[in-house]
Write a structure and sequence with these properties.
Blueprint: E1 2-9, E2 14-20, E3 25-32, E4 39-44, H1 63-77, E5 82-90, E6 101-102, H2 105-113, H3 122-135, E7 141-145, H4 164-168, H5 178-191, H6 193-197, E8 199-205, E9 209-215, E10 218-222, H7 243-251, H8 257-266, H9 269-274, H10 280-285, H11 289-313, E11 318-322, H12 323-328, H13 330-337, H14 349-353, E12 365-368, H15 373-385
Parallel strand pairs: 1-5, 5-7, 8-11, 11-12
Antiparallel strand pairs: 1-2, 2-3, 3-4, 6-7, 8-9, 9-10
Helix pairs in contact: 1-3, 5-15, 11-13
The protein binds adenosine-5'-diphosphate.
Residues 206-208, 235, 279-281, 284, 323-325, 328-329 line the site of adenosine-5'-diphosphate.
């Protein structure tokens, strides 16, 4: 059976997708705790659980080992499996890489040079590509960049007010979650062409969270900037922070850049504010006032950015929620939309509680659309296969 494999390799997780050449979903896999206890979950195209073979900690010791463990499981479910192309999520394409590209040693060297722009993501993404190159030396490998969707946004959303030389060196607002926004834009084009042609704010609310303003299906502004730290607070990331705080942490608290990096990427956001968890489900279930304050801050920042993006778009025709929180949490969607009638948003409480696709009845439409970054990668891989 000929299939396209997609990989999204993180610091301690690996997400896999297996697609037919007609882009039918065959299976999805999720490995977590790589380098630790390790675990693999596998589902079929309909979301039903698939059997996972026994694998000790060595089966999850590295990205390459985790990939082999997941492939063994895929081969158990699809004995005649033949992987004909592998598509990869690569967080950073820098200034020069936007369209999906076939992986070569030259491209790998260029992408490795972008690691300082995304030190906590890029090296792991590239380790995933290396592991797949070893596993499938004959299959074309295609890199798909999370920055790509935003590359044509206007200069005012591409730059910081720093001396020009930094811009030339690549200190720019890149924006991320581009594969997710690309998918949502495509869904709108297919199902809601009038909205696709108009002004839409998409809120991708997952462990990582950002928002994007779409005009005519193109990104014109995003809440994430140079790094995946900017904008909204996230599970463990701070989101927007006054740069003066960082100077204070260095000068007065004596923190090193590595300590500040850990603080901002791993110990802040919902986890840091609540002192309880980075998981929205746990915070919603908690009566602890700090959990409630973390949710208050999260929704407050989304509402502020919604207003800002609506201004950047010159108005708004629709708000789209996606990501684990956006797709599943009626509570957070209600909190975001509360009192937004001034913007044209009137939530339909029943539809929202039922996780319906259309959840408002005001002049601004509000939709929940499950995102699918894997299919965007698979489409790109198929595109390369078909020349
Ligand atoms: P990632 O960015 O790792 O892909 P996801 O998009 O899966 O993350 O989102 C993970 C987040 O979604 C977690 O904070 C989780 O608590 C939240 N989430 C998932 N389901 C629900 C739910 N039913 N209610 C509230 N939050 C949820």
């Amino acid at each position: 059976m000929r299939a396209i494999l997609t990989l999204n390799a993180g610091s301690s997780s690996l997400k896999l997708g297996l697609f037919s050449e007609d882009l039918e979903t065959l299976a999805m896999g999720h490995v977590d705790r790589i380098g630790g206890a390790g675990g693999l979950k596998l589902t079929d195209g309909a979301g039903g659980a698939l059997p996972v073979p026994e694998a000790g900690p060595e089966g999850f010791a590295t990205n390459a080992a985790a990939l082999q463990t997941a492939l063994t499981a895929f081969r158990g479910a699809f004995p005649a499996l033949e992987v004909v192309a592998v598509g990869h999520r690569v967080v950073h394409g820098g200034i020069h890489h936007a369209a999906p590209e076939r992986v070569t040693e030259t491209l790998m060297a260029e992408l490795a040079q972008l690691a300082p722009f995304a030190p906590l993501h890029q090296p792991h993404n590239l380790a995933g590509v290396r592991a797949a190159l070893e596993a499938f030396p004959q299959a074309p490998q295609i890199a798909c960049f999370d920055t790509a969707f935003h590359r044509n946004h206007p200069f005012v959303n591409d730059s910081f007010a720093l001396p020009r030389r930094f811009y030339e060196k690549g200190v720019r607002r890149y924006g991320f979650h581009g594969l997710s926004y690309d998918y949502i834009s495509g869904e709108l084009a297919a199902c809601e062409p009038a909205l696709h042609a108009g002004r839409v704010v998409v809120a991708h609310l997952g462990s990582g969270a950002s928002m994007c303003g779409l005009k005519g299906g193109q990104s014109i502004a995003s809440t994430m900037g140079f790094s995946a730290l900017d904008g909204l607070p996230m599970g463990t990331r701070s989101g927007q922070i006054d740069p003066g705080v960082l100077l204070y942490l260095m000068d007065q608290e004596g923190m090193s850049s590595a300590q500040i990096s850990d603080l901002l990427y791993k110990d802040s956001g919902l986890k840091g504010m609540s002192g309880i968890s980075n998981d929205m489900r746990e915070l919603e279930a908690s009566n602890d006032p700090h959990a409630q304050e973390a949710i208050d801050y999260f929704t407050f920042r989304i509402r502020r950015e919604l207003g800002g993006l609506a201004a950047a778009l010159g108005g708004i025709d629709a708000l789209v929620f996606c990501g684990g929180i956006g797709e599943n949490s009626a509570h957070i969607r209600a909190r975001v939309c509360e009192g937004m009638e001034w913007l044209g948003i009137t939530l339909d409480a029943g539809a929202n509680a039922a996780n319906a696709r259309e959840i408002a009845h005001g002049p601004v439409r509000v939709l929940t659309i499950p995102t699918n970054e894997e299919i965007v990668i698979a489409r790109a891989a198929r595109g390369v296969l078909r020349g």
